[in-house]
Amino acid sequence: MKTKRILILAVAVIAIIIGLTSLKNDDKSFQISKNLNIFASLFRDVNLFYVDDVNPEKMITTGINAMLRSLDPYTVYYPESETEDVKLMTTGEYAGIGSVISKKGDQVIIREPYKNSPADKAGLLPGDIILEIDGHSTKGKDVAGVSEMLKGMPGKEITIKVKREYHEKPLIKKAIREKIQLPCVPYYGMINNKTGYVCLTSFTDKSAADVRTAIIELKNNGAESLVFDLRGNSGGLMDQAVEIVNFFVPRNSKVVSTKGKLKQWDKEYIASKNPIVPDMPLVVLIDRGSASAAEIVSGALQDLDRAVLIGERSFGKGLVQNVRDLAYNTKLKVTTAKYYIPSGRCIQALDYTHRNPDGSVGKVPDSLITEYSTLNGRKVYDGGGINPDIKIEPEEYARITQELVLQDLTFDFINNYALRHEKIDNIEQFKITDEIYNEFKNYLKEIKFSYETESQKVLDKLINIAKNERYYDTSKETIEKLKQEFQHSVDRDMNLFREEIISFLTEQFLQRYYYLEGFLQYRSKHDKEILKAAELLANQDEYNKILQP
What we know:
Layout: H1 2-49, H2 56-69, E1 76-78, H3 83-91, E2 93-96, E3 99-104, E4 107-113, H4 118-121, E5 129-133, E6 136-137, H5 143-150, E7 157-163, E8 171-176, E9 178-181, E10 187-190, E11 195-199, H6 207-220, E12 225-229, H7 238-246, E13 254-260, E14 267-270, E15 282-286, H8 293-303, E16 308-311, E17 319-325, E18 331-340, E19 350-355, E20 361-363, E21 371-373, E22 379-381, E23 390-391, H9 399-406, H10 409-420, H11 434-446, H12 454-468, H13 472-486, H14 490-496, H15 498-526, H16 528-537, H17 540-546
Parallel strand pairs: 11-12, 12-15, 15-16, 16-23
Antiparallel strand pairs: 1-18, 2-9, 3-4, 5-6, 5-7, 7-8, 10-11, 13-14, 13-18, 17-18, 19-20, 21-22
Helix pairs in contact: 6-7, 7-8, 10-15, 12-13
């Protein structure tokens, strides 16, 4: 009997183990099914019983977005109303009037019409306040809402009512919507008689073709070396990054590989063509805004010892996204893999799989950073972003300069000036004269421009603490002297930081009159990092030395 009981017990235990094993294998599927049922029943009951009407689409979208936020910032759901954003992201193309718009106070304004766009042809100007679109008021709408109103079928006329300074009555402007192609290479040209410059701002489906055109034209114009500017480039299509790297490296060179949960995402991307400039000395400019595809290009060129990198450490986005079609014309951009550049390193900076107790995301710790080698044997490291070969610290602007930008005062002044002056000198000759600078100073006085420095904030805090701790009376004389020392004057600061403010004003003036292209043309001859790159390329011994271990 005892044996029989033991046998029964053993069989039962085995059955339980088998059952548990089977449950373990099916547990995830069960959990998914269970929680989908919970979600569906919860939504049904909220919809039925909640005291007020609910918007089903809005509610579901909110729930989906909250769920995806627990993963990473790049996994994004696009409802049917936002699928055009996916097209813009991948092609740089949309149908509209071709203008940057922004919020200013309670109103949406024209920030920058693109050159030769419908907005430009219609006579819309920076600073114009958008009041109505096709008879529909924009009051209370945000930038996204107004942007949606401006978009539409190509070839269709749109009527825009705007308020403009110096005009008592609103102006009516008519534009014909067009397919707008945002330029991924807004400017390329010669820095000097031997060095070319290409600025790439995004990786859309036309980026490689545009970069190729720029390089060939510069080469034909006498370029013997090249500065490739990827600063502020947040990335885009990986295949375009691979093709661009191929312009500089030999055929069959490994450019990047991807590894994901599914084997279908484990891929290796190889340079498939002969390069167009295999030996042209190359400097790539990067900064903290260079991310994703921009890091593939810069990182691969560094790993293959094909370029010298100058600037700041890049962003550190080593994640690959794919766009999936969902039901009812909705889409999901989902992170499917990590990418690895030729040395084998992944440059992902943030670990989204292991969050801190407060939900925040930490960077890869120094203890886990691994050393790798470039093709020539130079030491490089993973753990977040691409480190440049020559580091240049970003400029720290004076507080007054920051406040002039934050309060949008340079924008307002230049718009005011442009309404009174149709033209300025050409890009090469334009300068901020004493007359213009004094006019700017007077403008700031008229609007009673003021700001508080960080020094003043800290001192005020110190005074309050001293009073609370009853030290103020004994230190009053010293504190008063400090107050005098840190008391700023707009006039004094405008004189003290004159050169810095003039430099910034010059760039803004040129962008206002000569669009983004004009600004970039000016910058290519005055920017310290571009000039450093040109200087290095003129010294081939130093250039070659950097690329050796």
